[in-house]
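Lab notes, practical 5.
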Amino acid sequence: MKILCLAKSDYSGLTEGMARAFTGLGHHVDFFDLRPFRRVEKYVGPGFTAFRLRRRLTAFAPDLVFVVAPLFVRSALYEPLVDYRRSSGSLLVGWIGDLVTDNDDNRRRLATFDRLYYTDSGFAERLSAWSATYLPLATDPALFQPPAATPHRECVFVASRTANRVAFLQSVRQSVEIFGPGWVSADVTNHRCHPGKQSLSATGRIYGEARMVLNLKNADNVVHGLNQRSFDPCACRVPLLHDAVADLERHFEPEREVLVFATPEEFDEQSRRLHGDVALRQRIANAGYRRVLACHTFRHRAQTVLADLGQGEVSQ
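Output from the prediction step:
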């Protein structure tokens, strides 16, 4: 099968991970990256991306177009997608990872797809009219691997600054080393900040340098779901301290594969447990590592999509 993956290249590594997974399963894959075309359009006009997408669809002739974050794809790009599907009989599949805003433009986008997936069970009601299917995020073992070096950081958090994350970190006593865009040391004076966006390779290195990793959801676009930090630290064989979101127990066993907290006080207690117990850190890290490699890689997600389309079986 010929598969065209379409998205921005830096969407949490999700598109690149799925492209590698489809390729590893024996499919011929191409990747149409929206990001560079958006920059060029500033100089040549707003129709350039749609023009190039039409050319790529014609030249590559995919059987499946797989769109990551379809509600962030501009409406003007749906015309070449619909025209190509109409002329070729190809399939159009979307994977939604952010909270869905109900408006006419988004409803038109969603109605375009043959099949839709979403990463957060909290999106189910908003997507019920389109018979969408829950499909959580995953990790890419090509990028996130156990480290060779001994950890020298205590607890790290790699994420963008949001109001709920600031409020939480202001309330905890245990020190956290924070990496990501938007952070200001004055906001979280009891923690060390490294402002700026981190590449995926840098993020994997930071995880590998830590004794534990914190995960806090972005309350602006997550309801119940897991994010990349739910899987990537585990792939690095580092113990994960995860906030208590509803979808977590669908995919991990708390106290065996991850440690969970609901309040700043619970986070402080769980981090103290890990800090003082090397054997516990190793048990949690190893169990989480085994879980993500067995169930939660992009290869597993690609197999699910292909099986739903009658193109293979889901591995157990």
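Observations recorded by the TA: The longest strand covers residues 2-7. The two ends are 22 Å apart (CA to CA).
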